[in-house]
């Protein structure tokens, strides 16, 4: 998911996507601990997406408080 794509989404969609990605991340961690998943780069990608979403949400929150 590209940062530009995330920027075009509203807050509600970002919150939904955030919860979805966090659930995926949790499932991946369980699979890794059970040695069912070997592709660790997917975990790294998901973590970056979660960080981008949180960054956008914080930026939008700051914009609203500054108005």
Task: Give descriptors for this structure.
single chain, 67 residues, mainly alpha, 3 helices
How would the blueprint of this fold be written?
Elements: H1 3-7, H2 11-33, H3 41-66
Helix pairs in contact: 2-3
Characterization of this structure:
Helices cover 81% and strands 0% of the residues. The protein has one domain (11-62). By secondary structure, it is mostly helical. The model has no long low-confidence stretch (mean pLDDT 93). Helix 2 runs antiparallel to helix 3 (41-66).
Low-confidence stretches: none
Helix fraction bin: over 70%
Give the rounded overall mean pLDDT: 93
Could you give the distance between the termini? 29 Å
Number of domains: 1
Q: Per DSSP, what share of the residues sits in E-state strands of 2 or more residues? A: under 5%
Note the run of SSEs as H and E: HHH
Instruction: Give the class from helix and strand content and strand pairing.
Output: mainly alpha
What is the global morphology?
Answer: elongated
Put simply, the count of helices is 3
| Number of β-strand runs | 0
Rg (CA only): 14 Å
Mind describing the biggest β-sheet?
A: none
What is the subunit organization of this protein?
A: single chain
């Amino acid at each position: 998911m590209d940062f530009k794509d995330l920027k075009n989404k509203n807050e509600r969609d970002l919150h939904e996507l955030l919860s979805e990605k966090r659930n995926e991340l949790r499932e991946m961690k369980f699979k890794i601990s059970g040695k069912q998943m070997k592709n660790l780069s997917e975990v790294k990608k998901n973590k970056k997406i979660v960080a981008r979403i949180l960054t956008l949400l914080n930026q939008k929150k700051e914009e609203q408080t500054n108005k």
